[in-house]
């Protein structure tokens, strides 16, 4: 994933150059807003690259559970940068609203901006595929931001074209302000999702149901599993529960059951840490997962 994050920095710089060129050609405040968001894209791509490098470090004495949460910090930073960009765009929109100006060479600027938008769309699709495959919060945050940027840029392109065709100059700062509001919403949503990861949210309900199913199917010889807890940490999943076995079962047999369950869960979840506390049948709570 690190090479994908490094490529994201190069793509973000290229898109920034194109969008800045489109703004410089036309003088459009809406295209300025679009270019300013690309500055955030560059900063976010750099933050994602650093976070992915840090998250890949193995556990150590100070971080026995690894460094995977570094990616969530990257996503929070990206959300904060998005919000700052939105506020700057609103400031420029208000200034342009008070003193609107005609656009220069609108067709050429629109073509340049359209090329940049196409590059962003293609790269966002790739980041979604790689981020989901690797369960990387940093890459997925970057992909969501780029997708929001693509939608925003599409609206800006249509709006700037209308300004050029109709000569209604106040449409330009209005579009910039709408762009800022869309960016602001995207940034706050991204920060909310990232904070959820930092707060050790449980796995989605469908994933939890699958975990329970695998435990029930692979813990043959045990009685039940209860007090199950799960959490995400970047691309890693942590699962822990109590497994009740017959009182007469040997430690070796109980250990074999744990190994079987752990292997099944890791095959399903990928990067997973499984903690199983074995208890005798007197500790059964008659709830949780009944073993098939």
From TrEMBL:
Protein name in UniProt: Protein p34
InterPro entries assigned: Cation_efflux (IPR002524), Cation_efflux_CTD (IPR027470), Cation_efflux_CTD_sf (IPR036837), Cation_efflux_TM (IPR058533), Cation_efflux_TMD_sf (IPR027469), CDF_Transporter (IPR050291)
A cellular component annotation (GO) from this entry: plasma membrane
GO MF annotation list: cadmium ion transmembrane transporter activity; ferrous iron transmembrane transporter activity; zinc efflux antiporter activity
Localisation per UniProt entry: Cell membrane
Cation efflux protein transmembrane domain ranges (all copies): 7-199
Membrane topology: Multi-pass membrane protein
UniProt key word Transmembrane: yes
Residue ranges occupied by any Cation efflux protein cytoplasmic domain in the UniProt entry: 204-281
Keyword line: Cell membrane, Membrane, Transmembrane, Transmembrane helix, Transport
UniProt family annotation: Belongs to the cation diffusion facilitator (CDF) transporter (TC 2.A.4) family.
Principal location listed in the UniProt entry: membrane
BP-aspect Gene Ontology terms: intracellular zinc ion homeostasis
Superkingdom, taxonomy of origin: Bacteria
Lineage: Bacteria, Pseudomonadati, Pseudomonadota, Alphaproteobacteria, Acetobacterales
Chloroplast listed as a keyword: no
Recorded coiled-coil stretches: none
TM region(s), chain numbering: 29-52, 72-94, 106-126, 146-168
């Amino acid at each position: 994933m690190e090479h994908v994050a490094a490529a994201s920095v190069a793509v973000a710089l290229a898109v920034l150059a194109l969008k800045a060129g489109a703004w410089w050609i036309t003088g459009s405040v809406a295209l300025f807003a679009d270019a300013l968001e690309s500055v955030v894209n560059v900063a976010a791509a750099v933050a994602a690259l650093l976070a992915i490098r840090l998250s890949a470090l193995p556990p150590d004495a100070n971080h026995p559970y690894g460094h995977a949460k570094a990616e969530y910090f990257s996503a929070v930073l990206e959300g904060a940068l998005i919000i700052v960009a939105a506020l700057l765009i609103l400031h420029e929109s208000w200034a342009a609203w008070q003193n609107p100006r005609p656009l220069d060479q609108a067709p050429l600027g629109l073509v340049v901006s359209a090329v940049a938008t196409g590059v962003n769309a293609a790269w966002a699709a790739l980041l979604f595929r790689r981020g989901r495959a690797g369960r990387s919060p940093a890459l997925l945050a970057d992909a969501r931001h780029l997708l929001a940027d693509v939608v925003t840029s599409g609206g800006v392109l249509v709006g700037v074209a209308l300004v050029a065709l109709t000569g209604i100059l106040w449409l330009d700062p209005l579009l910039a302000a709408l762009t800022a509001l869309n960016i602001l919403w995207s940034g706050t949503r991204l920060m909310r999702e990232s904070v959820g990861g930092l707060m050790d949210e449980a796995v989605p309900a469908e994933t939890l149901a699958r975990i329970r199913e695998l435990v029930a199917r692979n813990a043959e010889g045990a009685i039940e599993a209860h007090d199950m807890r799960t959490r995400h940490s970047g691309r890693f999943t942590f699962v822990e529960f109590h497994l009740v076995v017959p009182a007469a079962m040997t430690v070796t047999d109980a250990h074999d059951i744990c190994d079987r369950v752990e292997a099944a869960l890791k095959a399903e979840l990928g990067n997973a840490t499984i903690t199983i506390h074995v208890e005798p049948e007197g500790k059964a709570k008659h709830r949780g997962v009944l073993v098939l």
